[in-house]
Write a structure and sequence with these properties.
- The protein is mostly helical and about 170 residues long.
- It folds into 2 domains: about 30-85, Methane Monooxygenase Hydroxylase, Chain G, domain 1; about 105-165, no CATH class.
- The protein has helices spanning about 10-25, 30-45, 50-65, 70-85, 90-100, 105-125, 130-150, 155-165.
- Helix 5 runs antiparallel to helix 6.
- It is a peripheral membrane protein.
- It is found in: Cellular thylakoid membrane; Plastid.
- This is Photosystem I assembly protein Ycf3.
- Belongs to the Ycf3 family.
Length: about 170
């Protein structure tokens, strides 16, 4: 810890400088500050595509962090890494763990929906229409939840729900 910044991106550098300042002035325990440092380093590694390093940092942050809200974001980011590596079952597990701690996390709901939609598309391609319908219905339920929490987001999902007739089955607002 702290990790060497390889990225010359202005926004990443700015985030790191601000995070370092916040870390120094934050009225938090040493353990909380250490957990935040690992989380920050995990985000930095993740943004550079260094997923193994990011996971190491996130797991250490998870070990140290006690606040459920903060833990939910660590779990969510771990889910992002597994999803980007095509490990969808693991990603779903981490997204659900994040939602168990923070049910108001629209990105996790959206990402779960995206995985189910993807599985529905794959099942359709194999002509397994029953599985496809089940996966699409699951995707719809998670997208509806995400849209309820963030009505101005997920426009493509809203359009998909409308065009497939899945939005009408539940009052969205």
């Amino acid at each position: 810890m702290p990790r060497f910044q390889k990225n010359d991106n202005f926004i990443d550098k700015t985030f790191t400088v601000i995070a370092d300042i916040v870390l120094k002035v934050l009225p938090a325990s040493k353990q909380e500050k250490e957990a935040f440092a690992y989380y920050r380093d995990g985000m930095s590694a993740q943004s550079e595509g260094e997923y193994a390093e990011a996971l190491e940092n996130y797991y250490e942050a998870l070990r140290l962090e006690e606040d459920p809200y903060d833990r939910s974001y660590i779990l969510y980011n771990i889910g992002l890494i597994y999803a980007s590596n095509g490990e969808y079952i693991k990603a779903l597990e981490y997204y659900h763990q994040a939602l168990d701690l923070n049910s108001r996390l629209p990105p996790a709901l959206n990402n779960i929906a995206v995985i189910y939609h993807y599985q529905g598309v794959k099942a359709s391609e194999k002509r397994d229409l029953e599985t496809a319908r089940t996966m699409f219905d699951k995707a719809a339920e998670y997208w509806k939840q995400a849209i309820r929490l963030a009505p101005n987001n997920y426009i493509e999902a809203q359009n998909w729900l409308k065009t497939t007739g899945r939005m009408a089955s539940d009052n969205m607002y």
